[in-house]
Fold:
Amino acid sequence: MKFLNREEAPISQEVWATLDTTMMELLAKRLKIRSVVDFKAGLGFETDAIPTGKLKTLSNKEGVSVAVREPVLMAEIRHDFSFSKKNLEELKRDIDDLDDSELRAAANAFAKVENSLILDGVKEMKTKGLLESLSHKPLKAKGAKELMTAVARSQGMFNDEFVDGPFKLVVSDATFSMLVTESDGGVTMKKKIENILGVDSIIISNAVGDDKALVISQRSNDFIFYSGLDVALGFESEEKDKLNFFLIESCAFRIVSPEAAIQITLG
Structure:
């Protein structure tokens, strides 16, 4: 992919490999929302839209109709950032206390946009996010015990809509801490929820916010994240004391079955 400009960067392939590994490890800790929807990769960076088979009629006169196809547009996400040459030298030498704050800031900024695309959509693209498209009214919970009760209630609601599991619960750091520290009868709320949904069913992502949680079916093909080019690291330019890089990806998000997730409002 020539547009990544890697061959123009004044760094070796070994350093590129280290940068890639470091950055992808950071991103893996932040791009959690893509892990609870279907991830379809390999579409290619040149893909502009995802076909849906849907038509919108524009006119119908004298027996002749004109309709427009309604694909899901692909978004291109790019974040430019800098990495100091001093820190780059320490990266080369595998320094244990490397200052990776520039890389962490870049990962946070980039992940915030991708997570928002899935959860909130992009108005300018007429792409709806998961949160605004759910067919169920949000359940309400105050505290960890009521959250556990809401998770239990969600199972009956899913059953009414013929939505099978398994299921994941997405919560913020603060909500997860509440589930771990609060207990009933000597059993934490985290454990009680895992008794309902299964072990390792709780996903932590601050993208969902402290004011809500999401229960999402993992049966497949309900919420689809399409990846044209998965997150890649490219080179932009060199300055006296720093190198300028960018993160880029192309992606789209489609909601097929809005009944396959339930929001729980907290507080």
